[in-house]
Specification:
- It is a single chain.
- By secondary structure, this protein is of the alpha+beta class.
- The protein contains 20 helices and 20 strands.
- The chain has five domains: 84 residues, GIY-YIG endonuclease (3-Layer(aba) Sandwich), CATH 3.40.1440; 140 residues, no CATH class; 81 residues, no CATH class; 158 residues, Nucleotidyltransferase, domain 5; 57 residues, DNA polymerase, domain 1, CATH 1.10.150.
- The strands form four sheets. Strands 13, 14, 15, 16, 17, 18, 19 and 20 form an eight-stranded mixed β-sheet that branches. Strands 4-10-9-8-11-12 form a six-stranded mixed β-sheet, with helices on both faces. The chain has a three-stranded antiparallel β-sheet with strand order 2-1-3.
- The protein is globular and about 80 Å long.
- The two termini are 59 Å apart.
Length: 593
């Protein structure tokens, strides 16, 4: 415990303080306008929450960094939290680099998806939490505003041959001189305007261009503009919510293990981010919001003009000053009217079900001694008796822990016996558990009914794990079967049931994905089997370049010759063999689990 005389030596200036334990591990990083008073507050009166109680018991040393003002202290605090990752600070669990849509600064700008923010004069839009959604946004917008994605360095001197994007109307081929620089820049401006939320302005520009083309009887051009208008209207209907006016809001909400931010730009909802948090127990809502906002905007994100919160964050004035370094117009406040209140309610509704609440509810329903942190799910995937596999997925604190995923190819079961397959997989899985290769589960979930559960119990008894908690979840009725024979029917809105469904669905997805991957590999091998000169190494190199038979069929001998180890003669043999392979046996056929 830190002696109180130490506090008297602390400076009465703005800065950052670090609490360390007896092993010099960082426990907590905080900031203050007055370092001495703030540190003394941690030790005065009754402890307010778990964090202060823990600090009083375990902190053995304190370090301080003086700064010129509170804003500098806030920035330094964020940097130190990211460096040390203290247990008692709020942390973003998935503080990764989110993708941005980038319009480069070139003579003929191009659109790319990037995770790196650079001071290169380019325009950046985002961040996007779903990469697939960002790619789809680019593709759909290019139908309305054809902008290139290629890496060619273009000028007005060198002319290239148009690529496939020109023929499918995703690019106007500036590389071939088929569009003027002025017209291309208009496309880029329209593309950027939509990403900023200016739908009406972009549509008005396209309508004007269509009418001008129609007046001078350039009907093909007018039809092209009509198609672009239809593509833009479709995208607007599909992806955006519109507010009256030109509001630029970030609406923020946070709870025990997650936070949500809705982005409104020029009145349009242009994005949503859901982030996992690690929050110390007992932290107040105002303090949680304050720390979440600091973490969120210290990761390269730019705030809107208004950051709306349901409650006022703690240390609002310092937070406000710091946020203005990101956007000089930014201000943080609570809702002032019905519309803003509705936006905050919508943001709060987007918070995922709290894992803590779901785990506590599940423990209550299953009569477990404590809420389960590690849940592992098993599912069988086979097609008849061919290629039987059982997947084992792992969730830790409600999130997939993919390093602990396993797939068990069934060895000791003949014929189609899903029950015995479950028994073999669970038995083999606990060998890995005992070797600490995967976490020990607090709960095992079997996809199926009472019979599948009984066979899983047999495996646990054989593994000397009879006390292991295990349940099964039947798909059709969504009923939970317990080892004691109870059948539990929960409401479909139950957080406990939804948690089990997420684990069950992930085990099914993983089993099916692995099964399809193996089928594709075997189909490719069966097609190429027996080709002289094609050994394991060359077959592997070929499969990496062309994973399916249909892709291999489309490759020319010249394309195959570019694969390492594939000679011209071998490429010709492969092309001939694939050409004679029956269309009905293509590996792109879908298989159900």
């Amino acid at each position: 415990m830190i002696a109180k005389r130490v506090f008297r030596r602390l400076p009465e200036s703005p800065g950052v303080y670090i609490f360390r334990d007896s092993n010099a591990n960082v426990l907590y990083v905080g900031k203050a306008i007055n370092l001495r008073k703030r540190v003394e507050q941690h030790y005065s009166g009754a402890s307010l929450d778990y964090r202060e109680e823990f600090l009083r018991e375990h902190a053995e040393k304190i370090e301080v960094f003086k700064t010129r003002n509170e804003t500098e202290a806030l920035i330094l605090e964020n940097n130190l939290i990211k460096r040390y990752k203290p247990e008692l600070n709020v942390m973003l669990k998935d503080d990764k680099s989110y993708p941005y849509i980038k319009l480069t600064k070139e003579l003929y700008p191009r659109v790319v998806l990037t995770r790196r923010l650079m001071s290169d004069g380019a325009l950046y839009f985002g961040p996007y939490t779903n990469v697939a959604a960002a790619r789809l946004t680019i593709k759909e917008l290019r139908r309305a505003f054809p902008v290139r994605t290629c890496t060619l360095t273009l000028d007005d001197k060198k002319v290239y041959r148009p690529c496939i994007d020109y023929h499918i109307k995703l690019c106007n081929a500036p590389c071939a001189g088929l569009i003027t620089r002025h017209e291309y820049q208009n496309n880029v401006k329209g593309f950027a305007a939509v990403l900023k939320g200016s739908y009406k302005r972009a549509l008005a520009g396209l309508y004007n261009e269509m009418q001008q083309s129609s007046k001078v009887m350039r009907y093909e051009s007018a039809a092209a503009f009509r198609d672009r208008i239809m593509a833009l209207e479709k995208l607007q209907t599909k992806q955006y919510v519109q507010l009256p006016g030109w509001a630029e809001f970030d609406v923020v909400a946070a709870q025990a293990d997650s936070g949500v931010v809705l982005h409104f730009r020029r009145g349009a909802l242009v994005g949503r981010e859901v982030l996992k948090l690690k929050v110390p127990a007992g932290l107040g809502e105002g303090k949680l919001l304050s720390e979440f906002i600091q973490l969120y905007y210290s990761s390269g994100r730019s705030p809107g003009e208004t950051v709306l919160c349901a409650v006022e964050p703690e240390e609002l004035s310092a937070l406000q000053v710091w946020l203005k370094t990101k956007n000089h117009r930014a201000k943080i406040r609570m809702p002032r009217n019905k519309l803003e209140t509705a936006l905050v309610s919508m943001c709060t509704a987007n918070l995922p079900p709290s894992y803590t609440f779901a785990a506590q509810d599940l423990a209550k329903q299953l009569e477990l001694s404590s809420p389960p942190r590690v849940i592992q799910g098993f599912d069988v995937s086979n097609l008849g008796s061919a290629n039987p596999y059982v997947s084992a997925v792992c969730f830790v604190d409600g999130s997939p822990f993919r390093r602990a995923y396993r797939v068990y190819g069934i060895k000791g079961v003949k014929g189609q016996n899903d029950f015995a397959m479950i028994r073999e997989a669970v038995f083999r899985h606990f060998r890995h558990v005992r070797k600490n290769e995967v976490p020990r589960p607090d709960l095992i979930l079997i996809d199926g009914g009472q019979t599948q559960l009984r066979y899983a119990r047999q495996a646990l008894i054989l593994s000397h794990e009879a006390e292991q908690a295990v349940v099964s979840l039947a798909k059709r009725e969504e009923q939970i079967h317990t080892a004691s024979g109870r059948v539990i029917s929960l409401d479909r809105s139950s957080a406990a049931l939804q948690l089990l469904q997420r684990v069950r669905d992930e085990s099914h997805r993983f089993a099916l994905a692995h099964h399809r991957h193996k089928r594709r590999q075997q189909s490719l091998v069966s097609v190429l089997n027996g080709i002289k000169g094609l050994g394991r190494a060359r077959l592997t190199a070929l499969a990496l370049r062309y994973p399916t038979v249909s892709q291999l069929r489309q490759a020319s001998p010249d394309d195959l010759n570019k694969v390492p180890g594939i000679s011209e003669l071998l490429a010709a043999r492969i092309s001939e063999k694939v050409a004679h392979f029956g269309q009905s046996r293509l590996s792109t056929r879908k298989f159900s689990a």
